[in-house]
Design a protein that fits this description.
The structure is a homodimer of 600-residue chains. Chain A has 600 residues and is α+β, with helices and mostly antiparallel strands. Helix content of chain A is 56%, strand content 11%. Chain A has 18 helices and twelve strands. In chain A, the strands form three sheets. In chain A, strands 3, 4, 5, 6, 7, 10, 11 and 12 form an eight-stranded mixed beta sheet that branches. In chain A, strands 1-2 form a two-stranded antiparallel ribbon. In chain A, strand 1 and strand 2 form a beta hairpin. In chain A, helix 13 packs across helix 17 and helix 14 runs antiparallel to helix 15. The longest helix of chain A has 37 residues. Chain A is globular. The mean pLDDT of chain A is 96. Chains A and B meet through helix 10, helix 11, helix 12, helix 13 and helix 16 of A and helix 9, helix 10, helix 11, helix 12 and helix 15 of B.
């Protein structure tokens, strides 16, 4: 089986669960029908399997080097990204008006997933370029767009996001990089930026940095932050890269995983002028960034799912092939050993991976569909509803996989035993790679604050109520199927606990106590959302089984969905209830005390 | 604060909770009083901090190399182990009659813990040598002991354990290495051994392998396995290393962590005769190995705790020093940033580490105390009770830390954010190192089978009942303290769920269903045992607070215990109940189906 994608499951998500064909009826997506999408996915799978996957271990083992003030990466990285560019994947989700291929975000998500699965370290360069181009496209002046966007969509120049600084990671209010106007929309930038993925590389002859900085004299805190485009090389009169822009690579960070992506400490304006160009209006930098945040966070969550998907598929292959031990009811040492998938605890380890991977993947696609619906919806109320629903689900889609798909990667290693702990197999690398997703693009804790503070309490719980109503509607339909009653009841119980916990948080006027429960709440809420995705998949599968003749593999596929849903109902949903009870009690066990008790 | 040990907590465990002084009253330990023990611990801490800790990153970054058929390790490894040997630590737990220092196993555990914390990769060589020497000492002939034991106790020759083979990891019944008698207790060995830690190295001029092999014609399966001592170099007439014994280093495994310990594929008798010597009687190899298993498994669990302890201390230090962001109720960007320990979610991440580390450490010491009590107990019934209690706790002490202290290491990284993901800080290495403990010395799943099958159902639940009675006695005493009532009630509820689950498993005559629930049961049972350790620590602390004047740091220490106990009661114990309910329902969600549903 393919290590990087389950095409059957992709088809299931797109055409059976989410009904992408309704979306395709819209003029915006006129160029895409099922056969066109299949063609795009085939091309992506071929490239990902043939060019990206084979160099995943290589770029892990041969980290970027700091040579003569530049970051040098293995040459294979450039070859892979050139092929990606030539296939049009940088341009895939962009409007035709700016030279894009105007594909649904769902299709872009499916494509990105395969590349991320094959080789996250190399794919990151494309991911960041698309994010930067997206930002430029949304808020940049016509002149800036004309100068930079075509090069980025062609994959000739890569982009980066420069937010963090050494002294300000999660706390952007405290960034110090300054941007002083020098006329004509140009600014002189000065400061340091930390954790910049792709911040330097020897792949493209220019790099387009999207930099958050403060214009001296502006408001304090995040309200004083503006967004600038800062190229590594200034452009000549003909638009080609000219003189250097005095951005120094101060150092490379050496990471546990995702080692093929350079991660840089950059210094602006230290050794001569660094010139940048204001994007949009002054002081709106954070607002612009947040505009792009949903897609970026879906992307991070999806990357986490993909690491787990590869681990799941790899460990399943291994469990099918590796003979070891005997069934518990047939222990005679003279009987032959059996493939370890016959051992029920190995099946549990595979099932827990399947439940995490396919549950979370469904959520990623559901959120991508919301992005597409937003792109074509014209009704204001409906747009607002879609937007707030996407906003509510974003902390979940970003963070649930980073926790539970990381856990899946842990079990993938476990299935392989000692072999899984060696670098001869990809599962240990996937575990290392995936650990980052808990941290970047807003840590797990930050997502909890966002969910509870901004997304639930912030709008008086209205969006949450709409989501609960949607989940209830699914439960009601699932109850009509006797085989899903246990699952429906399980999810219903969770909703009751959810309501109690939310009421408690709403009734609590102590911000510290609310915050103390936010991360636990996020985790439990994520379980409910994933449980909803599972029961949705189980319903579709149950109807398919009842309504049509099918081959053996299709039958096994649908039964697999039913079983994974049941596994999730029994093994995972009750944990959500337990955690929600803790939140409902407004737990203060980490609040009391002075901190001294943690020191001794 | 020290990165590798909390001496205050060691004193608490030894003198306040476990009352080691009663043990010291026995003639066997006449050489040890509190001041002697303090001296030993001081020496160990100095060596561990000054010699082992500073090279931990170095041996991680410079893996063993395969050169000319040998494994070459960084020279610093030998220097550190020489210092360890010179301080007498190889000999520490052995009887004076064989040249040991006859320290309580508790003291050996405390000493080992500091070295493991400082540098597990280097300490592994000592750990394995002590285990091999222990085996030789218990079952070897006087002649073999005389020839090898003094060299091992002096740290001149290291030992290894050769159990697994490429085709037989967890399934020892299927090993193929053969041992053919050639007279005088000598055997010719042939076969391959996989995953051999310390299997080759350039530190010592001989290596003493303890090898499981089958004498041709013997019983099939594990009943046909015997134990052999197989030196890397044959001994000359004067007892010094002579001709090579034809053990080939076929390859080195490249691991995710614990990289400073060589991990080898060895081949015996491929290129000339490999001569080994039978230990004890034929066909009793597995029995002998199991005799040593408790100590070895406590050691693995303890190593896992120590990785988490270092992560906990490091992330606490970081959280105290790193300014970032502002309290949720004081967000003005003009106010100064606060150390991140002020953020309640950071405190939660530290508290969860503390709860795992100090809960599991207490269990390690409790088990070590049982080893000591066994060594001096003469009453047959009491010996049998101690032995079966230790047997019951062994799968827990081995596996609970490998899961929950690994989780603690995950949170240590999280506290450091992006910095934690880089190799500039030790926390990512600790996470990689710790991942092995889930796998080796019996995987997590194997421990579940051992617990449910052998240790609980195997003796009709008698040992478990005795343990439950002990836990109940603790609960009763805790209830007398109003401040611990919530914790006592929480643990009591767990015991009720435990009883229901055990009854269900006992009443189930389907071995597959029992097995399907074993790992979940192990995890939940582990929570109860750790909960017991917490309430025991809280009781001692509560009495200390009530009964004496104390300084600020002592007060903070005791209150820290109370708070961590409360955290465990609220955040962790309810999860055990949830999981026990799943077991009580004899969950079959991973049993049904053909396995095909995992393939598509």
């Amino acid at each position: 089986m393919s290590q990087i994608v389950n095409r059957r499951d992709l088809d299931f998500l797109l055409y059976e669960m989410l009904d992408v064909e309704t979306l395709l009826g819209h003029p915006r997506f006129a160029a895409y029908d099922r056969s066109a999408i299949t063609h795009v996915l085939d091309t992506a799978q071929d490239l990902a399997e043939e060019i990206f996957l084979p160099i995943a271990a290589l770029v892990d083992a041969n980290e970027p080097r700091f040579v003569g003030g530049r970051a040098i990466v293995p040459g294979e990285t450039a070859v892979a990204l050139r092929a990606y560019a030539d296939a049009g994947f940088f341009a895939l989700p962009f409007d035709e008006s700016v030279g894009g291929l105007q594909a649904p975000w769902l299709v872009h998500t499916a494509v990105s997933g395969m590349f991320t699965a094959a080789n996250i370290s190399v794919t990151n360069y494309a991911f960041l370029t698309i994010a930067a181009a997206n930002l430029l496209n949304a808020f940049g002046s016509a002149e800036l767009k004309q100068a930079f966007l075509p090069k980025m969509l062609a994959g000739d120049w890569f982009g980066t996001m420069c937010l963090s600084e050494p002294q300000a990671g999660s706390s952007l209010a405290d960034i110090r990089t300054s941007a002083t106007e020098i006329g004509d929309g140009a600014y002189r930038l000065r400061g340091s930026k930390m954790w910049i993925s792709g911040g330097d590389q020897d792949i493209t002859d220019n790099i387009v940095h999207m930099v958050l900085a403060k214009i001296p004299g502006g408001p304090v805190g995040t309200k004083g932050i503006s967004l600038f485009l800062v190229p590594k090389q200034q452009l000549d009169a003909d638009g080609s890269p000219g003189a250097g822009n005095n951005i120094q690579l101060v150092g490379l960070n050496h990471k546990m995983g995702q080692r093929g992506t350079t991660n840089c400490l950059l210094s602006f304006g230290e050794d001569g002028d660094t010139i940048g160009y204001l994007i949009g209006e002054p002081y709106r930098g954070i607002e612009y960034m947040f505009h792009m945040m949903n897609e970026a966070r879906i992307g991070v969550g999806h990357a986490s799912v993909m690491a787990a998907l590869v681990g799941y598929r790899h460990s399943t292959d291994y469990a099918l092939a590796r003979p070891q031990g005997r069934p518990v009811n047939q222990r005679s040492p003279e009987s032959p050993q059996v493939p370890i998938i016959e051992h029920v605890d190995v099946r549990r380890m595979l099932m827990s991976q399947k439940a995490a991977v396919e549950g979370a993947q469904a959520l990623c696609f559901y959120c991508a569909m919301l992005v597409d619906r937003l792109a074509i919806e014209t009704d204001t109320t409906e747009r607002s509803n879609l937007s707030s629903l996407l906003g509510l689900l974003t902390p979940v889609v970003k963070s649930w996989p980073s926790e539970h798909c990381l856990e899946a990667n842990k079990w993938a290693i476990q299935v392989l035993g000692g072999y899984g702990y060696t670098r001869d197999y990809p599962v240990e690398r996937l575990y290392r790679d995936n650990r980052l997703n808990h941290i970047h693009e807003g840590t797990f804790g930050i997502q909890g604050l966002d969910l509870v503070g901004r997304k639930i309490l912030g709008d008086g719980g209205r969006t949450l109520e709409r989501l609960i109503a949607e989940i209830r509607a699914t439960i009601t339909k699932a109850r009509e199927l006797p085989s899903l009653r246990e699952d429906a009841d399980g999810l219903e119980s969770c909703l009751e606990s959810l309501t109690v916990a939310v009421d408690a948080l709403r009734g609590c006027d102590d911000a510290v106590i609310r915050t103390a429960n936010a991360t636990i709440f996020l985790d439990a809420f994520g379980h409910i959302v994933i449980g909803w995705m599972w029961i949705s998949q189980a319903m579709v599968s149950s109807h398919a089984i009842a309504s049509s003749e099918m081959g053996e593999s299709d039958r096994a596929f649908y039964y697999g969905k039913l079983r994974a849903c049941r596994y999730f109902t029994r093994h995972e949903l009750p944990l959500a209830i337990t955690r929600l009870k803790l939140c409902a009690a407004l737990d203060d066990s980490c609040v009391v005390g002075t901190g001294d008790d943690l020191k001794y």
